[in-house]
């Protein structure tokens, strides 16, 4: 993977249990935070079901559109774990037992005196040529094919694997941000804020309303890859808020 | 919208703040639960940024693929609220102030003695021909164009709007489910479970591993639109688990 000032990425969370609402995804938010710190632009995230064609089509669309694709879910030992085969289909690669993955699994189960069942052997299945992603939590590795990183869905395992993936990834110029709490509603500040955004094109200014049931408030977040541009926009927003404070006090 | 035994749906959460990890999406999980109860199949969910082209392209792809599309986010009064214009672009419709929305907003701000600013008027902007989705929390309505339902991103407002949307939607035959806790790891039960799935084609059996840092356990979930098929599969899984219990006791 070549270095880039701002690598782009997409994430795919795979699992019927997320689409049914039974499981609430935690992996997308975790990856989003880490990628932001690493200067990698997460451009989209998709949650899809345990459907071979949907998985393969989604992987193919996203791996061509972005520098990095991370998937989670569907690499365990049961019949509904079909991600490895779907990734093989996406790349047109045969899928079989990867020798080093098989060795690690066999050794781990032998050491623990647990039977190495046919179901457990499935966790060594990967597309030909895949490289392993270490799993320090529960041994069964994830894998990488080209720019696609295939990780487990259980959050503790996903997070441990992602730490290993991050070591291999190109990092970008991190986006720095400044947040200002604003006690005035969006409808009051919307006009002036639009003018500030126009005159600070190197920044992205977001306005995030909150509503606690009785009162609206707003968090204003300025983001930029350029610290000086960030600071200039932050000062402009702070000055606008001071104006509103002065007006509301008078 | 025509009734269907199992309407299909997709959800789009719009917002840079979710992709940066600053905000954790709660709306997808909420919609997933409600749609499951209503017998509507949520087939995928996407999180995308505040990018007009990305929003329009995503809406166009999903509204053609599924019966129902729900979006959240980007319909407030500030410059980064661009969803209404992006939906207009997706449908090739002009976007302007919707009279009834404008009337509701003007009346609400007049009543509260709050200035009806240019920024606040933006919340009346909708594609021509859109119908309103009531907002009992903070007045500014969402809207519907064809099979696309455009809702607010703030969770309390999203949820209130979604309750109103659900009244208009076709419901399907609800999927019923049964969950069994399994103290045996997936690698032990994987083989027999696969056989049970094969002999119960009217059901979908999911195996969801959990790992608490020291011990693996598994939740087995059987889902079906047919109560008798569900019960038959549940009994087969329960019998398998009883076998494992007997073996582990001996």
Describe the structure.
- The structure is a homodimer of 250-residue chains.
- Chain A has 250 residues and is α/β, with parallel strands linked by helices.
- Helices cover 43% and strands 24% of the residues of chain A.
- In chain A, helix 2 (27-37) packs parallel to helix 7 (155-168), helix 3 packs across helix 4 and helix 8 (186-199) packs antiparallel against helix 9 (227-249).
- The radius of gyration of chain A is 23 Å and the shape is elongated.
- The termini of chain A are far apart.
- Chains A and B meet through helix 1, helix 2, strand 2, helix 6 and helix 8 of A and helix 1, helix 2, strand 2, helix 6 and helix 8 of B.
- Strand 2 of chain A pairs antiparallel with strand 2 (41-48) of chain B, so a sheet runs across the interface.
- Chains A, B: Residues 10-172 form the MoaB/Mog domain.
- Chains A, B: It holds the Pfam family MoCF_biosynth.
